[in-house]
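Action item from last meeting closed. Structure (185 res):
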């Protein structure tokens, strides 16, 4: 549906001058799925008339290899946000490792508690730094009991739904069209 593309575009846009809607800052990109594409950033930077080398230099990239590593990266992020002029933290995707590491109903309570703590760490960052935007992408899962309408729902349950301050649901439309719907704000 283009969620990683939006994350890439935000990494470019955050570097724009304030007069052009940017924040004149850097981005911290935490990739849990291995979907970060520097070549796409280059295309987006050039489309905005920016020097792609500078744009890439202003994106601090980290690959998270497990849920524990992901959590640690956010805890460590606090150290560099002020020092590096970070104005955007991206977690692409929040739930990926948690879904693969906590399998079955027996681990659901532990997973949800850990996710809740992780989300609060992300929210705390946004509270500590007034000009910082924290964006997370999420996955969807199927609702097999749905007969009419969209048979998908956000993965992660109520913990993620209540932890996010604004939620936008992306889906494919007809042809090349994409639809973004504000679910909660």
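Sequence:
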């Amino acid at each position: 549906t283009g969620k990683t593309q939006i994350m890439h575009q935000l990494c470019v846009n955050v570097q724009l001058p304030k007069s052009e809607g940017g924040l004149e800052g850097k981005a911290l990109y935490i990739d849990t799925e291995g979907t970060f594409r520097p070549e796409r950033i280059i295309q987006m930077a050039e489309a905005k008339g920016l020097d792609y080398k500078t744009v890439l230099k202003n994106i601090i990239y980290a690959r998270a290899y497990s849920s524990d590593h992901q959590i640690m990266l956010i805890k460590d992020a606090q150290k560099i946000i002020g020092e590096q002029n970070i104005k955007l933290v991206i977690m692409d995707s929040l739930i990926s490792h948690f879904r693969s590491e906590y399998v079955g109903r027996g681990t659901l309570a532990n997973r949800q508690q850990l996710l809740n703590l992780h989300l609060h760490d992300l929210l705390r960052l946004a509270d500590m730094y007034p000009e910082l935007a924290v964006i997370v992408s999420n996955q969807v899962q199927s609702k097999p009991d749905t007969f009419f309408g969209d048979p998908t729902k956000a993965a992660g349950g109520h913990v993620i739904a209540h932890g996010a301050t604004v939620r936008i649901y992306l889906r494919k439309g007809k042809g090349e069209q994409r639809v973004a719907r504000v679910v909660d704000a």
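Note appended to the action item: The chain is about 40% helix and 20% strand.
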